[in-house]
Structures are given as C-alpha cells and as structure tokens.
Amino acid sequence: IFSPNSGNKEITWMMLEAGAETDVVNSVGRTAAQMAAFVGQHDCVTVINNFFPRERLDYYTKPQGLDKEPKLPVKLAGPLHKIITTTNMHPVKIVMLVKENPLLAEVEALQKCYRVLDLICEKCMKQKDMNEVLAMKMHYISCIFQKCITFLKEREDKLDGFIKSLLKGREKDGFPVYQEKLIRECIRKFPYCEATLLQQLVRSIAPVEI
Q: CA spacing 20 to 30 A to 145: which of 2, 55, 138, 166?
C-alpha cells in the first residue's frame, strides 16, 4: 500500500507502475483511493481509479489456450493502453486519440481492440473483487470504438464526421444531442444489469429529458 495524501499525481502514477497495491487497506480499513478522497486529493483518486497495468493488457498479445493467434496484435497494445488509462472520458477526446494513431484508426484494428475491452469488462465483473467502475469504463470505450467503426465504414468523412456529430449542437440552445444519446446508449448496453453502478447511473439519467 502507498500513501497518496501528498497530492502528487505523478508520484502516485510512478508508484502504481512500480507495482504498488491499490486494494490493500491500512490500519483503519481504508484503501489508498479512499484515503486520498478523505483528505481531498481527488486528482490522486482519479489516477488510482484509472490505473490499468500494462501487463494485464499484454496478456492478450500472446495466444491463449487453443488460440493460434493472439487476440490483440502487439503493435496495438501501446495505443490501446494509452486510451484505457486516460482520465478524460469525453467521447471526442477518445475519438481524437484513435484518429491521431494510424495503427488504431482502421476497422480491423478497432474490432480487435473492442473485443479485448469486452473481455476485460467481463473479467472485472466476474473476478472476486468486482470492479464495476473499470468494467463500465472498458464497456464505454468499447462502445465508442464500435461507433468509430460505423463511421469508418459508412461515412466519407470518417472519424472527422464522428467528431462533428458529437460536437454539433441543436439550433435552439447548442446542446449536443447526438453526444448525449451516444452516452446514454453506452450505459443502456452495459451487459451486467445487476451492477450497482449501472442502477445508480440509470436512476440519475432516466428522469432527465434531453
């Protein structure tokens, strides 16, 4: 366990990369993220909650069981890990990260990536220490990747068209309706209906009209 109370998110990140455990509790039964939240170091909480060890992704770059090919080509592991660990979950930011990497911005590459994200999501929900937040994040990025594929296949302006759709506001007040509908659709498609996080999100969003 480590102490993120200093509020230095770079040091927190370095300690996580060096193998610091995030689920160990201290003498009063709190994890590192809970202690950071308790003293108001919310940047450190964000870093801890968004941390995903590269080794966990590299697992999919090696053939498993009867597979002849790995589920994720080695060349895609770095770009995908960058997106997984980003703390900015705005859909435009995620699409921009895809667009700026030629290895990722292809239909076949995105198909492989979203399938791996779905597997990680499933693992997060089925492991002993269930991680609903990470599962939802993986599912959300997977949904955006799938929408990227649709635009790459069907639209001449490709990912630029997707970004424009996400940013376009309706005439009367500039509200980005397409973006709102996409985020709601991602939440609705989360496959684990019993998840507490999903139920909280639905309760918060359902009564709010677009």
A: 55
